[in-house]
Design goal:
The complex is a heterodimer of chains A (308) and B (447).
Chain A: E1 3-14, E2 17-28, E3 32-36, H1 43-50, E4 58-63, H2 72-76, E5 77-80, H3 92-101, H4 107-120, H5 136-148, E6 154-158, H6 166-181, E7 185-190, H7 193-199, E8 202-207, E9 210-216, H8 217-223, E10 228-234, E11 246-252, E12 255-260, H9 266-276, E13 278-285, H10 289-307
Parallel strand pairs in A: 3-7, 3-8, 5-6, 6-7
Antiparallel strand pairs in A: 1-2, 1-4, 8-9, 10-12, 10-13, 11-12
Helix pairs in contact in A: 3-4, 3-5
Chain B: H1 2-17, H2 19-46, E1 50-56, H3 73-76, H4 80-89, E2 100-106, H5 112-122, E3 134-138, E4 151-154, H6 160-181, H7 186-193, E5 201-203, E6 209-211, H8 215-247, H9 251-257, H10 260-299, H11 311-337, H12 341-355, H13 357-360, H14 362-367, H15 372-379, H16 384-394, H17 399-427, H18 437-446
Parallel strand pairs in B: 1-2, 1-3
Antiparallel strand pairs in B: 3-4, 5-6
Classes of the chains: A alpha/beta (308), B alpha/beta (447).
Chain lengths: 308, 447
């Protein structure tokens, strides 16, 4: 698949802060790209430059398909900002028609789509409700509908799952999967690594305004080697920390995640486990994005924060 | 263009559908009318009858107080035309007094001592049959001693109107008596004492004349208010809307969909349409009421068109739009840089006072519409629209004054709009601390 969008060495400085410091990446058509990073890493600023809210101080945003017209690009994007909000006094239908209209769609052409999407999100009965009467989850779903109504080429979601309950988190995850199957391109910004891992095809890890890691999820995880163990057990797992092969152990109740030293054999550890407690699950895996994330940026930040 | 229209449409429909808007639009004219009519009604009726004892030390004033509520003789001579004009202007010299019920006491040599029993009756209960509201004492020396003083006793020293009227009745009579005592025939005394009316004639540039210019001040104030108040009200409304969009976090979706210029112009035009709708309704209501008033005035021989030239309505429309756009841009900036309505109000307070200058200086401008300061004001940015409009109303400024004023206003609006759009782009997403002036300048440069 061809690339749809290229971000080339963009920079943005706010006063003393280099929010984005030379970020480059491309978004492939028909994939979900995860833009990962801690809070304040520069994700939102990068997205705001893509959506045309901020002008980059340097570098450029290029559309690789179709024209590069200044105003047209706004209509090609469906954007769900992290700071979500809707006109509280408006009715759901009115608001959705308005959101489509400012993306250049005629209201007459949009009504059917509004009905379709409300149906899909199980919001049909809320059609004529005012936004302020909706629950927070429903309001977020309405805003997501507003993001999709005009059939954007690129869907940009900034922390789409923040503030949602587990059911809605799954709903969003499934929706993104469906959208990808329908051939949409999605740029997903999140700090929830587990979600990114489940949904994204490719990831871009940003830290302090710079890209520190990028590639497909498999590539990234593969590059860190298959040297992680996930173990579920009944009994006392404290001894796992003391095993010589273990570089780092995270034990939470009756499950443990072990990072092994280079060249360590998982088989030895399984034997040790069997003798100590009842093993319910034993899995040799590539490290999770969470671990990679922490390995890549966590240690550095942590020490920096301690130094401060 | 379509996007701007979408913003404008939403802005307009949301505002017009609000109950507050509908109620305000339909009710305000009645409230205003009520505010103008009520005090008059209260003075005429609400105060009721005043019972006053007149102690006449001269013993010669009985006839003067016989018909205290009848119009004075001189005023009866006013023709219907003047009467109507005075009624319209509300500046009739014949103020509305409370009805007076006089208890005349011929008391030659009356002193305060003789007045004592009457003064006591002032303190009686309100429903006592012989309760008095006031006691008016004319000293015996009133006819001979120019230093003599009339005295009016009452519970409230502030009933100036009653006091004034009593004094006038007594004085007119006393003057007549003094003149007769010096050989003037009593029949001609009233004619000799008659004041003459003065009439203002306004000369237009083309040499035309029109009378009734005194009215222009009232008309100027009413039209000035009609011109400037909606600008402030809807300016505030725009500011509130922008702050609201910021606090509701709607704004990011908006500016990822439309350009700041589209957003700003859509908003401003939408709110302008709301304002014009409201004013349109008001003018229609006024026209209906005015149609009745004009019919009455015409039968009384008053030509209303001499007060307001038709061109004034054209000027009104032009300067309303100009004033509105100028103020609204300023309010939009306040909305863009502030994070709460309260903060925005504080931010606007000094700016608003500054913008109100022509309004505050209305009196001197109306009285000296061609003075250099008025001319300068009428061509200055920001102050121009309202000052120029008032000048076209009360005088006949050269056409080039009007054109220069309009051009300067348009330039000002363009500059304000440009700055506002820039500040909008940066400011609207900056939550948190309000920017300082140097920061604002930087925003304008970088955006």
């Amino acid at each position: 698949m061809a690339d749809i969008l290229a971000v080339r060495d963009v920079r943005k400085v706010f006063g003393e802060v280099r929010a984005v410091d030379g970020v480059s990446f491309t978004v492939r058509s028909g994939t979900i790209t995860g833009l990962l990073g801690r809070n304040g890493a520069g994700k939102t600023t990068t997205i705001r430059m893509i959506t045309g809210i901020f002008m980059p101080d340097a570098g450029r945003i290029e559309w690789l398909q179709g024209g590069n017209g200044a105003s047209a690009f706004r209509d090609r994007i469906g954007y769900l900002p992290e700071e979500r909000g809707l006109y509280k006094q408006m009715k759901v239908v009115e608001l959705l028609l308005f959101l489509a209209e400012i993306k250049g769609c005629r209201p007459a052409d949009t009504r059917k789509k509004v009905d379709y999407w409300l149906e899909r999100f199980e919001l049909s009965d809320k059609r004529d409700a005012k936004i302020e009467e909706l629950s927070k989850g429903n309001a977020q779903k309405v805003q997501l509908v507003g993001t999709l109504l005009h059939d954007p080429e690129l869907i940009i979601l900034d922390e789409p799952q923040s503030g949602l309950d587990p059911v809605n988190i799954v709903l969003i995850r499934n929706l993104l999967g469906d959208l990808r199957k329908e051939g949409k391109t999605i740029l997903l910004s999140t700090h929830m690594m587990a979600e990114a891992e489940k949904m994204a095809d490719e990831i871009i890890l940003i830290h302090r305004g710079k890209v520190v890691l990028e590639g497909t999820v498999d590539e990234v995880r593969g590059s860190f080697g298959r040297n992680t163990l996930h173990i579920d057990f009944d009994g006392d797992g404290a001894f796992l920390c003391d095993l010589p092969q273990v570089r780092k152990a995270t034990i939470l109740g009756s499950s443990a995640e072990l990072a092994l030293h280079e060249g360590a054999d998982a088989q030895d550890i399984l034997q040790a486990c069997v003798s100590k407690f009842r093993v319910r699950k034993f899995e040799v895996a590539a490290p999770s994005l969470e671990e990679i994330f922490i390995a890549k940026v966590g240690a550095e930040t942590l020490s920096a924060e301690v130094a401060r | 263009m379509n996007k701007m229209f979408a913003i404008m449409k939403r802005e307009y429909l949301q505002a017009v559908r609000k109950k507050a808007f509908i109620i305000m639009t339909l009710l305000l004219p009645f409230l205003m009318a009520g505010m103008m009519v009520l005090p008059g009604l209260m003075m005429a009726k609400g105060m009721g009858t005043k019972r006053i004892a007149v102690l006449d030390g001269t013993g010669k004033l009985e006839s003067a107080f016989a018909r205290p509520n009848a119009p004075e003789e001189g005023e009866e001579k006013l023709d219907a035309k003047k009467e109507a004009r005075k009624a319209i202007s509300g500046r009739s010299r014949r103020t509305l007094p409370s009805q007076m019920q006089i208890e005349y006491v011929n008391q030659p040599g009356a002193t305060e001592a003789a007045a004592k029993p009457y003064l006591e009756r002032i303190s009686r209960k309100d429903d006592a049959p012989d309760k008095l509201d006031g006691v008016f004492v004319v000293p015996p020396v009133a006819l001979t001693d120019p230093e003599a003083k009339l005295t009016y006793f009452s519970r409230s020293a502030t009933d100036v109107m009653t006091q004034e009227r009593l004094a006038r009745l007594a004085n007119k009579s006393l003057q007549g008596l003094r003149l007769s005592a010096n050989g003037i025939r009593p029949e001609v005394v009233d004619d000799l004492l008659q004041d003459l009316d003065i009439e203002a004639v306004q000369l237009s540039r083309s040499g035309g004349r029109k009378t009734g210019g005194e009215l222009n001040f009232i008309v100027a104030v009413i039209f000035g208010a009609l011109l400037v108040l909606p600008s402030f009200v809807y300016g505030q409304e725009t500011m509130r809307g922008i702050v609201q969009e910021k606090t509701d976090r709607v704004v990011e979706v908006l500016i990822s969909s439309v350009s700041p210029v589209q957003l700003l112009s859509g908003k401003i035009l939408g709110v302008a349409a709301v304002g014009l709708t409201q004013i349109g309704v008001w003018i229609t209501m006024l026209a209906i009421a005015g149609g009745y008033g004009a019919a009455v005035a015409t039968t009384a021989g008053v030509n209303l068109s001499q007060f307001v030239r038709p061109i004034v309505f054209v000027y009104f429309f032009v300067f309303f739009i100009l004033a509105y756009l100028t103020y609204v841009c300023v309010y939009a900036i306040a909305g863009a840089v502030c994070n709460s309505e309260k903060e925005a109000q504080q931010f606007m307070m000094p700016i608003m006072l500054f913008m109100m200058m022509p309004w505050i200086l209305m009196m001197p401008i109306v009285m000296n519409p061609d003075a250099p300061f008025a001319v300068a004001f009428s061509m200055a940015p920001v102050f121009g629209p309202i000052t120029m409009f008032v000048r076209t109303l009360v005088t006949d400024p050269p056409v080039w004054h009007v054109i220069v004023s309009i051009l300067i206003s348009i330039a000002t609006i363009a500059a304000f709009f440009w700055v506002t759009a820039k500040i909008f782009r940066v400011g609207i997403l900056s939550y948190g601390k309000r920017p300082t002036i140097p920061e604002l300048m930087r925003w304008i440069r970088v955006a």
